[in-house]
Amino acid sequence: MRIVAIINQKGGCGKTTTSINLAACLARLGQKTLLVDMDPQGHCGVGLAVPEEQIERTIYDALIDPSDGRVASMEEVAWQIATDFDLAPSNIKLAGFEQVFAGRAGREDRLATALNTVRDKYEWAILDCPPSVGLLTFNALKCCDEAIVPVETGYFSLHGLTKMMETLEVMRKQCNKEIMVRVLPTLYDTRTKLAREVLSELRSKFRDYLMESTVNFNTKLKEAASFGQPITEYDPGSRGYKDFVNLARELMGHRPVEIETTSAENMGLLSRPAELVQRAKQLAQLTNYQFGRGTIPAQPVAQPTAQPTVQIAQPAQAPAPSPAPAPVAAPRLAALDPRTVNASDNVTITHISPPPVMQISPKSTDQKLSEFYGVKKIGDDVIFAVNFQDAKKVLVAGDFNNWMPVSTPMASGMRPGMWVAKLPLPPGRYRYRLVVDGKWMTDPNNKYVETNEYGELNNVVEVAA
Ligand SMILES: Nc1ncnc2c1ncn2[C@@H]1O[C@H](COP(=O)(O)OP(=O)(O)O)[C@@H](O)[C@H]1O
Ligand SMILES: [Mg+2]
After folding, report:
1. pLDDT value at position 18?
2. Residues of the chain with CATH 2.60.40.10
3. The dihedral of CA 29, 34, 40, 43: what is its sign?
4. Does residue 187 line the site of ligand 1, with CB under 6 A?
5. Is domain 2-266 in CATH 3.30.497.10, yes or no?
6. Residue 305: pLDDT over 70
7. For ligand 1, is residue 9 a contact (CB within 6 Å)?
């Protein structure tokens, strides 16, 4: 178990936000994580909607001696928040810890002793410290392997940080152990000159300590806390989510990934015409895929003898007129009023306008559509197309996105029930699965599968060079 203390004596610099969302993201990445609230204000419980009146045992009960009352086990204290994510909550009782333990031997090792009992149960313990450097923080420092100091990229932050680093050094010496201390810039607002200056100052002054990750100011993080949810639940398309996934990945020793932000917050910025243009682009792409446009899908290299299940119409078979629109696109296109499309958006939608004379019987259209589902390489992209009629959300997770479905939502396709993802995958072998309305499943349109360690089937796609 790796123990990470989130420490800063300054309040409001994002300790609790970092603790909650880092823990949630580690858990989302499959790491069994315990979040320990060492602040008597109990903000972790509030930010994760643990009903205060139902909290019978807190971390305080796991830290005390039998002479102080009944000692609780960590198992009794922990609340399950999500898969692989537990919280050891606190409340105001913890404020009495310092007084109760004043003058007692071993008072700074209480947390270490409590966490030792669950060392094999969790891969990570994240400790949310109070905004002070008293006995509670000392307990956290005493047992942690590393400390993260969130620093708000604001006016007084640099002065406060220098003091905090000095204090940490004094405490570290008292603890008589090595602790890796790192600074995490938080509440970073790219739009303000001050924040940019503070960040560059941080880079020059604390270069060796600075984490690669930065947590941007993102109102979704604030909202998530007020709704009692980690960002993984509240808005996995937000920038806040992306920042915390990258922070978790950095701790795990991975490089950051570019996660597309797809939240309503970003969509909200799109004017309706822009949305329509986006939709039009999507439809245009799909139309192109379906009718080949002269592109020939690559064959999976894993099974050199196997034929792709889908034959995209070759130029020889496809009716020649160019552009060749798909009849099935027409009903959807009718909903797109070209008049609302802003000319300055620089999108040509003429090639997906209602079809010219091109007779394709309904049967052959259906046939082509059913043939379209599956995975194939078109140009530099790999297209995943699946059919789930009643699904509300379809995601794809695999080797290409670290098995994080939330980073790759599929877009709804050109007809009801169709979901499509277009990924620019470099040549290689990828395993993947689908997540349909929260349920993991095998792609029924890709017959190439292999068993995973859970005894389920992963789909396999090999992208040729
Ligand atoms: N990256 C962020 N973007 C927007 N708001 C944030 C961010 N980080 C923290 N906040 C908000 O700032 C306030 C203080 O953050 P908090 O995590 O409670 O700090 P601390 O635990 O250090 O006192 C909270 O209202 C929180 O929602
Ligand atoms: Mg806090």
Report:
1. 98
2. 270-463
3. positive
4. yes
5. no
6. no
7. no
